[in-house]
């Protein structure tokens, strides 16, 4: 059975993007980027919505060919291309880079993927993660709190009908002041 994880850089006030959908404030330092690389090595499948897929596919397929690409950036580019991806979209006609297009319900597809997959499945993006969080399908949350408050925008957690109690399983501080908080649903 697969384990579904949801993790992103989050502003100190709980947002993954500001009111203009800007995420520039969440750029990781090399140590934090290496953490995400290490996570990516173990991903059996990554779930993307159209917008995040378009953002990622505009840069990562050739990022390692850029003359100023750092080793950690070049490594992630290789990992990203190889990572199996499931892209949820009603408007895209095709996807590339080891991706498959999915038009079905994200909750049902995620349930089936968890049943059929050995290893980690990650969901990228707050909009795509929201129904999975509400359905109780997320097995681990990786909240990387960045030392920036953005004053509003897209929240990491969706609105919930009831409390979601979590248990802290790891915390770690990075040189930039970012703090990783790994949580699992409390039993």
Keywords:
187 residues; two-stranded antiparallel ribbon; eight-stranded mixed sheet; alpha/beta; single chain; 5 helices
How would you describe this structure to a colleague?
With 187 residues, the protein is α/β, with parallel strands linked by helices. It is 28% helix and 29% strand. It has five helices and ten strands, in the order ββαβααββαβαββββ. It has helices spanning 30-41, 50-57, 71-82, 106-116, 126-134; strands at residues 2-10, 15-17, 43-49, 85-88, 99-102, 119-123, 140-145, 154-155, 166-173, 179-185. A hairpin with a 5-residue loop joins β9 (166-173) and β10 (179-185). α1 (30-41) packs parallel to α3. The longest helix is centred in the N-terminal third of the chain and has 12 residues, at 30-41. The chain is globular and about 50 Å long.
């Amino acid at each position: 059975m697969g384990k579904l994880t949801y993790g992103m850089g989050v502003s100190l006030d709980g947002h993954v993007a500001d009111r203009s959908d800007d995420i520039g404030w969440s750029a990781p330092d090399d140590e934090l980027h290496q953490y995400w690389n290490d996570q990516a090595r173990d991903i059996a499948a990554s779930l993307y919505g159209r917008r995040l897929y378009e953002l990622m596919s505009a840069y990562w397929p050739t990022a390692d060919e850029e003359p100023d690409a750092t080793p950690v950036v070049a490594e992630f580019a290789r990992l990203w291309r190889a990572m199996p991806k499931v892209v949820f979209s009603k408007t895209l006609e095709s996807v590339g880079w080891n991706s498959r297009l999915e038009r079905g319900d994200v909750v049902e597809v995620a349930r089936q993927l968890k049943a059929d997959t050995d290893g980690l499945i990650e969901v990228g993006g707050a909009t795509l993660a929201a129904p999975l969080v509400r359905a109780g399908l997320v097995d681990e949350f990786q909240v990387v709190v960045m030392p920036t408050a953005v004053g509003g925008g897209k929240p990491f957690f969706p609105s919930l009908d009831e409390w979601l109690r979590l248990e802290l399983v790891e915390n770690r501080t990075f040189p930039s002041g970012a703090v990783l908080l790994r949580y699992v649903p409390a039993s």
